[in-house]
Specification:
Elements lengths: L1 H30 L1
Length: 32
């Protein structure tokens, strides 16, 4: 149960990180 919750949180963090990276890359493209 605890492991399942941890896995879900980790996946959520991973998705958030990818979204943030995509946003940063978009800002860099707009800046250039």
């Amino acid at each position: 149960m605890v492991y399942h919750t941890f896995a879900k949180v980790t996946r959520l963090n991973l998705i958030m990180s990818m979204v943030i990276i995509c946003d940063v890359n978009k800002l860099k493209m707009d800046g250039l």
